[in-house]
Amino acid sequence: MDIKKLVKKEVSSLRAYNAREIPCRIKLDANESPYGFNRALRVAAGISTNRYPDPEAGELKKVLAKDLGIRQDMLLQGNGSDELIYYLISTFGGPVLYPTPTFSMYGIIAQALGEKKIEIALDSELDLDIGKILPAIKKERPKLIFLSSPNNPTGNCFSTGRILEIIESSRGIVIVDEAYQPFSSEKGFLPLLKDYRNLVIMRTLSKIGLAALRLGYLIAAPEIIAEVNKVRLPFNVNSLSQAIAVSALREKKQLIAHIKAICSERDLLFRDMRKIEGLTLFPTEANFILFKVNDADRVYSALLKKGILVRNLSETVKDCLRVTVGTPAENKAFLKALRQAGI
Amino acid sequence: MDIKKLVKKEVSSLRAYNAREIPCRIKLDANESPYGFNRALRVAAGISTNRYPDPEAGELKKVLAKDLGIRQDMLLQGNGSDELIYYLISTFGGPVLYPTPTFSMYGIIAQALGEKKIEIALDSELDLDIGKILPAIKKERPKLIFLSSPNNPTGNCFSTGRILEIIESSRGIVIVDEAYQPFSSEKGFLPLLKDYRNLVIMRTLSKIGLAALRLGYLIAAPEIIAEVNKVRLPFNVNSLSQAIAVSALREKKQLIAHIKAICSERDLLFRDMRKIEGLTLFPTEANFILFKVNDADRVYSALLKKGILVRNLSETVKDCLRVTVGTPAENKAFLKALRQAGI
User: Which of B38, B115, B235, B244 is most worth mutating to test chain A (most A CB atoms within 10 A of its CB)?
Assistant: First the structure.
């Protein structure tokens, strides 16, 4: 029996996500927050390990709905945004359209589910290439369009006007992935939700100090949520993640203080990186900075030799590296190592 | 825009899992263990909430592999078995064959993923109806066959000979779901894994005291694991579940003591239920007992009035209820309420 032959064609040609752990002293590769909410872990002690989680995540939805000023039936919880992408594609099918470069999971999951992918390169300003996207929408009628704004790995927000043009032109669902929105000076799309029935907003707690929990959520019209909820596994978010997230979200002040600290550190880091000759910096509204060097592989290795792990994007964006904003001390060490590495 | 029309046909006709919480004093409806491992929660305090989980679940696999006497590359971790069913069907596609009645998620997930379902009723002894399954395999060539043994909700193990006949006749993958195997007097299929390349064993920690964590795993040949791993979301099992599971699994003695206690309580409960006139009992190798009464809806309500929640299966198995084995005190209260309810 040849197992390979039994596997769906689209899956067989996928490569498993490379998640090899690279030993390092300072980890600035995964857009994690440098600040945890470890106080929130206290509530773990009160969990009954033998009982299934609340399948509706009622308490979590209550806290989120109140915070966002929306109805609870406009929310859907996921085991990270990744799982919500899976559910959206399961619910609506393809084609799935997204710009490139962007968050890799849109394409990986579309392929895992055997759906057609339509990839459209960003324009030279790293904004949405509306001149190519609108005709593609007309011709291919994508069921789903994923727009990460601020975009990973470029860091910029797409222009609101272009996103709205896409939403208005599409007969499918448009998901604005706001994973990095908390770090942005822009307001995000929540206020526009009432005007567009095909708009879905995706958010996550992973970038704001709670990556360990795996908690993402969708915000959309109740009729969209109800459909996606049909393919949701009943107990997809476990008891610990629910309880700890609720506890952390109740410490809103702390949460905002961390975000503010990261943003001001980002601005300082950006300013200092700009002084390094030969380095091209891309404007950022996220908790990371994309930058271009002469030889990304060489600089990546030089940084790693000093114990500093960044993301090498050279396969996706020529000669680019991505550094996550860390603590002041971490950023200082990164800057020092970068200067020593030479560009 | 009509959202309903955008949704995949198969999904649109699905109903969301009814997970309404029913208030009760004694919860015997969900095949949970009455005994938790709350001591294992201590390790939660050591988690860094801001860091992503280990995508490979290395420590967990190490502990499981050692315990099972297998190689680590024969294991795949899931956010509960539910997620592993999703992954298996994503990887291999359909048709998906399973007997009925059985665990409902095989059919729900196959439908969510738009794959053909082949349902074959159990025979009058609640065993696999080999006379119908073998011709169906020949005709329909299912890519996946799910066999829950011990079976939920019937409680019995299917005959090993019949399962082997199915494995030998199938050119697809056969998954033996051993969620309830720890409570069975039979050995399970692990020793047979080396003889059958298309055999996959699925297990879970949910029935043995850790339902809150959502942790299931597959055991299979490395070449099967490698393919399914391609559709696995990189961070599907969160940091807390990994750490707490490792901690609990290291307390093997405690784990086994709980299982033994549940099995002997089950045998006592079975013996006592047998004395109740008019009640039909089905033999069980699991942590629950299926029983038939004259009017399941009435008995269900009568029990609930006393604060005791069991599972009403009357929609699936005519006039049957399913009771999970609880603590001695819970079982006593259940028996008393059942006697008072009358059959």
Answer: B235
Q: Which domain holds residue B275?
A: 3-30+253-341
* pTM exceeds cut of 0.95: yes
B231 inside 8 A of chain A by CB: yes
User: How many structural domains is chain B composed of?
Assistant: 2
Angle (CA) A275 A281 A284, round 5°: 115
Alpha carbon distance B152, B126 (integer Å): 11
ipTM of this predicted complex?
0.96
B239 close to A (CB below 8 A): yes
Q: Within the 130-189 window of chain B, which residues sit less than 8 Å (CB to CB) from chain A?
A: 143, 171-173
- Across the A/B interface, how many CB contacts are shorter than 8 Å? 260
Q: What CATH number corresponds to the domain at position A336?
A: 3.90.1150.10
For B245-262, the pLDDT digits (tens) are 999 999 999 999 999 999
E strand or H helix at B136, and its extent? helix B130-140
On whether both A142 and A262 belong to a single domain, the answer is no
* SS3 of residue A195 by DSSP: helix
What single-letter amino acid sits at B46? G
Does residue B147 form part of some domain? yes
Q: Which residue of A has its CA nearest to B93?
A: A8
Residues B236, B78 contacting (CB under 8 angstroms)? yes
The verdict on A11 and A116 lying in the same domain is no
